[in-house]
Amino acid sequence: MNNDLIEIDGSFGEGGGQILRTAVALAVVTKKPCRIFNIRKGRPKPGLMTQHLLGIQTLANLCNGNLEGDFLESKEVKFYPAEIRPKDLHIKIETAGSITLVLQTLIPPAIFTQSPIKISFDGGATDTFFSPTTDHFRYVFLKILEKIGAKVDINIIRRGYYPEGGAKVEIVVYPLLRPAKRDSREKASKLKSLNLVERGKLEKIIAISGASESLKTKKVAERQMAGVREILGKLKLPIEEKVEYYQTKSPGSQVCLIAEFENTIIGTDSLGKLGKRAEDVGKEAALELLKEQKSEACLDKHLADQILPYMALAKGKSSITVSEITEHCKTNIWVIEKFIEGNFKIEDNLISWNPIIT
Questions:
Q1: Has 302 been annotated as catalytic?
Q2: 267, β-bridge pairs
Q3: Of all residues in the chain, what percent carry a pLDDT higher than 90?
Q4: CATH architecture assignment, domain 202-295
Q5: Local structure of 79: helix, strand or coil
Q6: DSSP labels, 169-224
Q7: What value does the mean pLDDT take over residues 41-46?
Q8: Domain spans of the chain?
Q9: Domain 86-180 classified CATH 3.20.20.140?
Q10: In what order do the strands lie in the sheet with 117-125?
Q11: Average pLDDT in the 323-328 region?
Q12: What is the pLDDT of residues 145-164, one digit of tens each?
């Protein structure tokens, strides 16, 4: 293992938790230790929050690594990864911390194992602010991951919303690696390059509107769907509607719209909150989807930065078109290039990865 610490300034660019998540995940895959400082420096509450802390501690457990500075509100951590030992992981989240953000830390290393890894969440939020909803995660992100050879199953036992959380979710991450031949330590990755530049024709839109059981008398999920219909209904698009209610610890609601094209999937989501009309939650997601659709890109702006590490870990060159090059995207590129030999190139809305072959 390389003992030189890769230095990562957590205040660079967008300056959020994505820097930490990407850095520690790639540290495990590449076996390169790192020091991350100025963690979330520009945020109202800087340093490690619950979901960041649980993510890196669980990752250290998975790879038998050593962590320094792993406590709430810590602004610097040092991480020394070791060899991954597949095991079941149980994560208890006492707050409404985002489950999907914790998974961004764990999935990249977990796919580079020899056997499946089960991750169980007790507590936390399935659908909360400033993070992907679980529907966007499973119906958009995981479907794109399948295109490059990664398989992850998710079972939502109970939804969780802010402020109580209380979700129950089970994840199974399946390995990419073929068993090593005889005594060889070479690990042949099956992660395929990703080339999504033409999305093809629209096949259908799936609209999912969900809310807590306590909001059923107010018909919140139906009203959210009415908002979606008001925007998308005029366009005569093929839409499959799903209205759902769940038993949850705190009231909440969400809408997710998934547009399936011949070659790709894009999605948008929106969350309900106190004082926000249910119809407006649906309209918000629908207007965002129209904007994404007009871009003619293969990946929506929220998915683009999430998929970049997998492009760099795959064999060969990859190219994607994205609806918007966000600060998240640019920041994630900066982090990835510190761990993996190669470079990203941005031309208009096209992002290409070119590995350096050694």
A1: no
A2: 258
A3: 85
A4: 2-Layer Sandwich (3.30)
A5: strand
A6: EEEEE---PPPPPTT-------PPP-EES----EEEEEEEEEEEGGGTTTTHHHHH
A7: 90
A8: 86-180, 202-295
A9: no
A10: 89-98, 117-125, 168-173, 152-158
A11: 92
A12: 999 999 999 999 999 999 99
